[in-house]
Design brief:
Helix content is about 0%, strand content about 50%. By secondary structure, the protein is mainly beta. The protein has a four-stranded antiparallel β-sheet with strand order 1-2-3-4, with no helix packed on it. It is flat. The protein starts with 13 loop residues before the first strand and ends in a 7-residue tail after the last strand. About 20% of the residues are buried.
Amino acid sequence: MWQRQVIDDALDQGHTILTADLNGDGNDEIIAGYRGKVRGVNIYYANGAKGERWINHPLDSGGIAASSCAVADLNVDGRPDIVCIGSATANLKWYENKGPKK
């Protein structure tokens, strides 16, 4: 049985969402981009064994109206990076993962 969990109800025009294990802990994080008057990209980390609570880490606050994002190891350093394209902001951003290698 599926159970709905609201993680964040404050995104202004949420437009892109994906998951990836960004920190190498074996659990996927949620990456969400939004493009309204308040715009940016957030990463949500599960806190607890079953993800009862989520920790919101703003990756970009106001610098991109994220229409779409993707995860890939762009510089082949063993860590997944995030790249997003902005609609109203007309930009493309690469968020290089500087965390520990897996």
